[in-house]
Design the sequence.
């Protein structure tokens, strides 16, 4: 009866492949998975900040290459009220925020139309991350192009940025532009 | 921003000329837990600012106030808000309620008083901040320099105005995360205090002394009443979520039956533990005292943590509120009540004139008022005016529009609707009597009445100004038909 000396075995056989940082399909040949043939709609979450403007520029370039339509999403989130802060004519403030968001979306879409893109706008009230994720499903978005950091940078520092949340939860490719 | 964008694109795929923009909301239906959470953070957010109740009333009387106020003050208000908010869930809140029930004058007064309240409110948070900061830097404490104290408060206001001007004001965005952080030192204090008390015995009876030194029983019961009322306000917050409840008739009473006891316990338990270790006869209980109480209960480290969280609480609330409140002049400008200049935006799209004017007002209030109790008193008095117009709206709408769909209705018909008014009326009457006895007629009552009267005096001026200005976008506010549910004001 002969026993194989473990010292002579390759290291890969002795330890779990995941410890080497290898994926489950390590032994299979490299392949190109099936993905949609074309990019039909690109969504750009936009808040007017320089980062989101960079995202917009990249989306326009992408649309130029692929012929995709661009959906400009502007989300506004009325601040959470704490400690009896419902005293204000809050609806007026919400209406003003919505008007701002609509104005920004309209200006942006007009800019894209002037550049020869096919574009439309979507203004959503609610948490920006939720708004983006919901729009990805409802609007059949193929790709998201967004700025790394929006206007609410302090919130980003405290809560984790919107772009990080989208990267983690979106079921479509996300291009984050710095 | 349009002209500076260096975009170049190759293939144009069809050209449309008119921008299409659709507007919608993120769809969500609130669970019971979410409703309770929203009510909790709208009304309470933790026991910060409760300390004066025990300093002014005494330990036992203060605890009694904490226990009974929600029953005769909060519960009736919350029922009134529930009926109005679910009948008109468009988030216009009290403004829509008043306009529909009482007409333009009532709505204007309510809006004006509420705005005056925010002036006082916004000065409370810088004050709370310095009172917790005093733990590290006694120069801004009660024995320190008034210049240092007011200087820090002004710096806080203007730093956040600068951040808002840069377009990054919403640091108070998540109530849940902030709330968990803020409550954590109290959880630690309660746990350690209970453990030490069970093992070694509690050093004091938390109900002793029942009254503050030198006060009568009536004086003790009214001394801290305004502060405890302030801590139990905010039930109108439900108007923000009424439209998102799946079944308001079922969900709202359930949420109230959980949130009222929850808020009471969040105030009561830390107070009981704190008073068991730091008696009011040994420690001066005033805003910021939780730091000393935490240190006595668990050690220096918890005092530090409490102080940091107290400052975080003040900053979080102030920053979030500044973003909302500072837009009021902007919105009033847009509605035609204020000059056009209030509508000016800077390059970051922040309403800079509105922000700067608001900050100047808050700075003036900071310079004028010296202590938390004085601010809370004026704040609550103004709020009472708003509150009783809300009650009036409830009764008028019951009479004028009995057919209005009310998903939640105060039980008991007319008797129930009038009965909910009795408790708050009684509380306000007792509080005013106590305040007048304590600080005189002018400081206790007339100061707030003069501020309220300004609303009635300003109404014709505002009406004239609005009619005169062509940019006013709501010409029907004063003479037109009543607002419908869901209509924006």
Sequence:
């Amino acid at each position: 009866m002969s026993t194989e000396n473990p010292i002579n075995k390759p290291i890969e056989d002795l330890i779990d492949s995941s410890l080497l940082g290898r994926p489950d399909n390590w032994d299979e040949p490299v392949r190109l998975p099936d993905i949609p043939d074309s990019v039909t709609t690109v969504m750009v979450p936009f808040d007017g900040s320089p980062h989101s403007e960079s995202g917009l520029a990249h989306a326009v370039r992408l649309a130029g290459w692929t012929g995709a339509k661009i959906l400009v999403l502007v989300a506004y989130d009325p601040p959470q009220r704490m400690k009896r802060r419902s005293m204000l004519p809050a609806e007026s403030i919400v209406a003003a925020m919505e008007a701002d968001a609509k104005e920004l979306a309209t200006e942006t879409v007009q800019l894209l139309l002037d550049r020869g893109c096919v574009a439309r706008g979507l203004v959503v009230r609610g948490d920006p991350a939720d708004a983006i994720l919901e729009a990805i499903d409802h609007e059949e978005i193929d790709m998201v192009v967004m700025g790394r950091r929006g206007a609410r940078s302090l919130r980003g520092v405290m809560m984790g940025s919107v772009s990080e949340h989208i990267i983690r939860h979106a079921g479509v490719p996300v291009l984050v532009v710095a | 921003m349009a002209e500076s964008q260096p975009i170049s694109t190759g293939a144009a795929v069809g050209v449309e000329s008119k921008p299409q923009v659709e507007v919608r909301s993120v769809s969500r239906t609130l669970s019971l837990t979410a409703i309770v959470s929203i009510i909790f953070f709208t009304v309470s957010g933790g026991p910060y600012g409760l300390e004066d109740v025990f300093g002014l009333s005494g330990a036992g009387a203060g605890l009694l106030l904490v226990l009974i106020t929600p029953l005769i003050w909060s519960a009736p208000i919350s029922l009134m808000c529930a009926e109005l908010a679910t009948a008109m869930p468009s988030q216009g809140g009290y403004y829509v309620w008043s306009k529909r029930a009482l007409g333009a004058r009532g709505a204007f007064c309510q809006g004006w008083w509420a705005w005056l309240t925010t002036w006082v409110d916004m000065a409370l948070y810088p004050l709370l901040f310095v009172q917790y900061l005093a733990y590290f830097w006694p120069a801004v404490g009660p024995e320190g320099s008034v210049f240092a104290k007011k200087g820090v408060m002004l710096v806080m206001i203007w730093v956040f105005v600068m951040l808002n001007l840069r377009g990054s004001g919403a640091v108070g965005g998540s109530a849940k995360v902030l709330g968990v952080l803020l409550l954590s030192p109290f959880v630690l204090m309660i746990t350690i205090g209970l453990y030490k008390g069970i093992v070694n015995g509690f050093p004091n009876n938390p109900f002793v002394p029942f009254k503050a030194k030198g006060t009568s029983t009536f004086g003790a019961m009214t001394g801290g009443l305004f502060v405890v009322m302030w801590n139990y306000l905010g039930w109108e917050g439900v108007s923000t979520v009424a439209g998102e409840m799946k079944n308001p008739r079922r969900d709202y009473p359930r949420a109230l039956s959980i949130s009222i006891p929850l808020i009471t316990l969040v105030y009561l338990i830390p107070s009981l533990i704190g008073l068991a270790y730091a008696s009011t006869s040994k420690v001066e209980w005033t805003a910021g005292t939780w730091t000393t109480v935490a240190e006595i209960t668990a050690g220096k480290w918890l005092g530090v943590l409490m102080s940091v969280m107290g400052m975080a609480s003040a900053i979080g609330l102030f920053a979030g509120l500044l973003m909302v409140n500072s837009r009021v002049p902007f919105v009033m400008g847009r509605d035609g009540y204020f000059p056009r200049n209030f509508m000016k935006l800077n390059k970051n799209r922040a309403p800079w004139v509105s922000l700067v004017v608001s900050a100047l007002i808050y700075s003036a209030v900071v310079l004028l008022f010296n202590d938390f109790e004085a601010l809370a008193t004026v704040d609550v008095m103004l709020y009472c005016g708003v509150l009783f117009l809300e009650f009036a709206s409830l009764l008028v709408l019951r009479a004028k529009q009995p057919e209005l769909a009310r998903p939640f209705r105060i039980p008991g018909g007319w008797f129930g609707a009038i009965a909910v008014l009795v408790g708050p009326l009684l509380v306000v009457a007792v509080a005013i009597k106590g305040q007048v006895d304590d600080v005189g007629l002018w400081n206790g009552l007339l100061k707030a009445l003069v501020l309220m009267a300004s609303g009635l005096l300003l109404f014709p001026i505002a009406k004239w100004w609005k009619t005169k200005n062509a940019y006013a976008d709501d010409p029907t506010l004063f003479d037109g038909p009543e607002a419908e549910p869901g209509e924006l004001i």
